[in-house]
Amino acid sequence: MLDSLENRVKLPVPGSADKVLLHSCCAPCSGEVMEAMVASGLALTIYFYNPNIHPREEYELRKQENIRFAEKMNIPFIDADYDADNWFARVKGMEWEKEKGKRCTECFDMRFERTALYAHEHGFNLFTSCLGISRWKDMQQINGCGHRAAARYENLSYWDYNWRKQGGSERMITISKREHFYQQEYCGCIYSLRDTNKRRREHGEENIKIGVMYY
User: Fold this and answer.
1) In-domain check, residue 59
2) What CATH number has the domain bearing residue 39?
3) Angle value at C-alpha 85, between 62 and 53, nearest 5 degrees
4) Does residue 32 surpass a pLDDT of 70?
5) Side-by-side strand order, sheet with 126-129
6) What is this structure's pTM?
7) Average pLDDT value over all residues in the chain
8) What average pLDDT does the segment 161-179 reach?
């Protein structure tokens, strides 16, 4: 794997940053981003803050897979709090918003605000997220939340790189299969799980089973 990383095109890193704080939601989404940064000689630290993920069993599955790959890559991993109660309070009244709507914006804001605070307090001047690599996400929505969080602090920027381009989306899938990552079938929150199961039932499919790998 390391030999193949050496042949990767170097990322166009903003400014003179040589270290990055990466907000990660799961191993499948972050695997390609992690490898791309390592190939570019960047010192990165993973920040795992995802109080939206439901249920707790699902949260632990995604976190442990991310830790497993981070350890394999020798990348520091910051395990932030699972303050689900604060998340539910923050999105209260938005329970029936559609995916990519106001609830998602509020969710991204909350997660990025905490990531930006950690970056500010620990000497990072650049942070980014792997969330945008998923084709199910609105990249403009995610980047807006990232820039808004970074603007709270001087000398902190959000890196809105398009991780999907130049084969990023395809490599994401390849890495997930190569590493046998747990591959979830819904975004993460209880409302996403509810709506995904509704769609599955409408198509004659069973509800999602936590812990089952879907490829």
Assistant:
1) yes
2) 3.40.50.620
3) 20
4) yes
5) 77-79, 43-48, 19-23, 126-129, 157-158
6) 0.93
7) 93
8) 93
Q: What are the start-end ranges of the E strands in the chain?
A: 19-23, 43-48, 77-79, 126-129, 157-158
Tens digits of residue pLDDT in 110-128? 999 999 999 999 999 999 9
In this structure, what is the dihedral angle of CA atoms 105, 109, 111, 115, given to the nearest 10 degrees? 150
Domain residues for 178? 2-8+16-183
A 10 A CB-CB count for 128 gives 26
Tokens of 66: 């991310």
What pLDDT was estimated at residue 213?
A: 67
Helix, strand, or coil here: 127? strand
Sign of CA dihedral 21, 68, 141, 38: positive
Q: Looking at the domain assignment, is residue 80 inside a domain?
A: yes
For residues 26 and 64, give the distance between their C-alpha atoms in angstroms, rounded to a whole number: 9
Domain membership of residue 194 (yes or no) is: no
